[in-house]
Design goal:
The structure is a homodimer. The first copy, chain A, is globular, with a radius of gyration of 24 Å. Chain A is built from 12 helices and 29 strands. Chain A has 3 domains: 271 residues, Spore Coat Polysaccharide Biosynthesis Protein SpsA, Chain A, CATH 3.90.550.10; 66 residues, no CATH class; 105 residues, Sandwich (Jelly Rolls), CATH 2.60.120. By secondary structure, chain A is of the alpha/beta class. At the A-B interface, strand 16, strand 17, strand 18, helix 12 and strand 21 of A face strand 18, strand 19, strand 20, helix 12 and strand 23 of B. Strand 16 of chain A pairs parallel with strand 20 of chain B.
Chain lengths: 482, 482
């Protein structure tokens, strides 16, 4: 196939987005695409796996994400691909038009005629082989100068998606021209479109030549493109990440690529997406991956449903969720936050998140597990003058050299081996051993081993805030709050 | 007043019962009357406080409870009254007729004409002064040979209570004769009774002379009384508890005192109960003590209710519960178990508990906090070869001298002072200090101080079950499982 011979397809993975409609599972500090909730992979990891299966293991994807998620994204990239790809940090969220413009700008610095395959990180497509075939079918169409969209056969008159009305087949290809786009129709219109046939859901996946999209952006998104090109003129390396100029990027209008370009350009084609597709956009969509029962319920995690029908129950593995005599609900339970809402209003869950923010509840945005470049931690209990955390350090991970003014720490290693620096002394602490860090002592924790290091930390002191940390040296160029 | 001059009133507190309708807050291992859920007191403690306020601080209540709850009951008795009272352990649950027979048998060993005031431990009565006045009014009536019931003015045609139809006033007293009892009527009948007036709810509180009830039991519950008298002939002291014969007690029929005696005896009177009364029999009843809002919701604990009405939300203080777009529900969330059910079916929650038992979920019966005679503990996290617990030891509390074959333990003291025995060595471990117990070492933990001792225990080993404990010596006469 000419396209993949001449031009390697460069995957572009859009890994921003908060996934508020999946609260409390998905939160700002760990959005849905990064949670390992299906087959022990995150949706982002599944996306990377799918791209590698379709395009080859030597892909170097361009990944666009926010700074807050960068260490998790890099960890998951390395876990699936062995390389971190090219992770570009968006200084703030500017919707998909600016994100695509940014990817195009970066890609054109290498190869103006590269084919870019833009994929959201938060969609579930199980059949990687079918996905690969469809992309291969689309490649010659994109190569020939079209912006290719992928059209999913509608299974119901959904009102939350964009619809594409296909036109004539493009001879000698798998693609059709596009007659019209209809964004989020009302139910009646959606039913009419499905009845008339020839309509697809817009899967939000795109394939195009960088220079072709660049031209379309210049025509339809000129101001945004200029802002992004200014911002990304000289990306600044930061460890394995690339940073761009915040002020310049902030000038790009906040609009989706569909509204800004796809619905206006005259060179758009659609290739029928003959693969399964789930945008995991709500609890109801996610629930299609849960186990079901004969009463129309969908369950993930420990649950007991009594006289319950048409209900979605998500329960964290550490707890049990029981429903009795209810119908048509979503019940999602995690150890620190619970949601109950009607299934029919699953698209509106972000209203709840907004109310939680208003009430200044940290659970609105913060996940109990906090990811750091060296691993992660989560709180087990908070007392009056103490708190207990579970800490996981990745092989090779090393916390900053630091000290605390107000707390002492006890570390008990429960898995793996720690190299612990206290003052001038360095010692190895292994499973079932403990170590004590007095107040004011310079100290550092490192995992020199080949498996994850897990330890229990008991902090005692009069002030236990995360901001009582003086970093003397850090491997990861972090801000004080990270 | 003659009665209280001649015969001290002896309170009898019935502290059995599981409170399954308040699952997941109330569980077999810590039933609703023992949970400190209202003004930081348990319903049992509030009952003791009310009795002390009405009858004097020198009361020595007879408390009937199950063996599983004995240490919590004794702890709460001591906390409120300074003495443990006379705690009789019912070998198994035999409903209230056998419990009253047991209290009568025990009381008659001291004073056959004592006045006994029988109170369930799980009712909420806020106005202790009014309660005391009503009891004082009833005393001469009981003294004169009547079995006095207390009648609550009905506020709605409830179908879950027993009703008393009052007869003529008994001259010179606050009491009326009783025309008829109606147990748990249907709604129509309940409405008719309320419309006709002269009906009360049976509050389940009784005042009578021991010998008077003894005669009534002999007439109407002969077999049960004989079994109980046989069982309680020689109560066996066990620390501060009294044990009775299990086999003999097991022969008593399982029936309520209302069915067995009160509805049959001809010497029953009713005194109008001019005090607030809540049997806390369901989430809906408990919710009347919660804070409310203008949409008819009732909330306790951190919660955010959006477009929600007529809903009861209980949320553990360590978490947040959010509801959106729902009506008429009960949502109860604890860190290890969540319940969602319609308010209208709050009486049927035990069906859920039965299903959880069927599914062998430990959350059906076990509370995360486990009470021991020396204090309590609860699990913080369970890992592959480790687990972490928070342990609280009361002042003077001492765990058994013990050893483990499969686990080592790290203890970090976060509050108070511990006296720790390891092998032959005894040492003091104070706040912010830690100690290590190797596998196989004999060890013991004691709180020699004046405040609670709190410590974090990290167990590591290949087997971490509670049954890996060899007790060499124990202060509390416990079974291996306790």
């Amino acid at each position: 196939m000419a396209a993949s011979e001449n031009h390697r397809i460069v995957p572009v993975v859009l890994c921003g987005g908060g996934g508020e409609r999946l609260w409390p599972l998905s939160r700002t500090s760990l959005a849905k695409q990064l949670i390992r909730l299906h087959e022990n992979r995150s949706l982002f990891e599944a996306t990377i796996d799918r791209l590698a299966a379709s395009l080859g293991n030597d892909i170097v994807p361009i990944v666009l994400t926010g700074a807050g998620d960068r260490f998790v994204v890099a960890e998951q990239m390395r876990a699936r691909l062995g390389n971190p790809g090219k992770i570009i940090l968006e200084p703030m969220r500017r919707d998909t038009a600016a994100a695509v413009a940014l990817a195009v700008t970066i890609a054109m610095q290498d190869d103006p005629t590269a084919l870019l395959l833009v994929c959201p990180a938060d969609h579930l497509i199980e059949d990687a082989r079918a996905f690969g075939r469809v992309v291969a079918d689309a490649a010659p169409v994109a190569e020939a100068g079209r912006i290719v969209t992928f059209g999913v056969e509608p299974t119901e008159p959904a009102t939350g998606y964009g619809y594409i009305r296909a036109g004539a087949p493009i001879e000698g290809t798998a693609a059709l021209t596009v007659d019209r786009f209809v964004e989020k129709p009302d139910r009646e219109r959606a039913e009419a479109m499905i009845a008339s046939g020839g309509h697809f859901w817009n899967a939000g996946i795109f394939l195009f030549r960088a220079d072709v999209m660049h031209a379309a952006l210049r025509t339809h998104f000129a101001e945004g493109l200029a802002a992004v090109e200014e911002a990304a003129r000289e990306p600044i390396p930061d460890l394995e990440f690339w940073r761009i100029d915040e002020t310049a990027f902030g000038a790009a209008p906040k609009i989706s690529i569909d509204y800004a370009v796809i619905e206006k350009a005259d060179n758009v084609a659609v290739v029928p997406a003959r693969f399964d597709w789930n945008d995991v956009g709500s609890w109801v969509a996610l629930a299609t991956t849960f186990r079901g029962d004969s009463a129309g319920n969908a369950m993930r995690g420990p649950s007991v449903l009594v006289e319950t029908s048409d209900t979605v129950v998500y329960s964290d593995p550490r707890m049990v969720t029981a429903t009795f005599g209810v119908e048509g609900l979503v019940v999602a339970a995690t150890p620190d936050a619970v949601l109950v809402a009607p299934k029919a209003r699953a698209q509106e869950i972000r209203k709840v998140v907004a109310e939680l923010r208003q009430a200044k509840r940290k659970e609105a945005d913060l996940h109990p597990e906090v990811f750091r470049p060296w691993g992660s931690y989560h709180g087990l209990v908070e007392g009056d003058r103490y708190q207990v955390k579970k800490i996981r350090v990745k092989p090779g991970g090393r916390l900053s050299l630091q000290r605390h003014n107000h707390r002492a720490e006890h570390w008990i290693v429960v898995r793996g081996t720690a190299e612990v620096t206290i003052g001038e002394e360095i010692k190895m602490v292994t499973e079932n051993e403990s170590v004590y860090i007095p107040i004011g002592a310079n100290h550092r924790l490192e995992n020199p081993g080949k498996i994850d290091l897990e330890l229990i930390e008991v902090q005692t002191g009069s002030y236990l805030g995360e901001d009582d940390i003086i970093r003397i040296s850090d491997d990861y160029n972090r801000t004080p709050a990270e």
